[in-house]
Amino acid sequence: MTNALVPDTAGVGLLARIEAKPDYASEIEELLTAALPPAREEAGTTLWFALRLGPTTFGIFDAFGTEEDRTAHLQGQIAAALMDNAPKLLAEASEILHVEVLAAKLS
Asked: In which order are the strands placed within the sheet that holds 12-19?
């Protein structure tokens, strides 16, 4: 859902918190930075950020114009790479929140 404070390309999003096993933090960082090119290829992913929140804690925030775009992203290459590597690299299951963007400044 968009409003006057949010461009129609960024009304819904995902906020993920990823906790790496201590010995695998650098691998998670590499996986996330390598995910930028695939994120750029996703037409429906209008914003994508990989974040370091602490020594072993990482995050992803991305935004989409529609629920369909968000669903396509969750079924895409980046999510698959994270899931394929989760048992080896992650200390716990990732927390993935579906969010509504209330206000945004994009440029």
From this structure: 45-52, 57-64, 12-19, 95-100
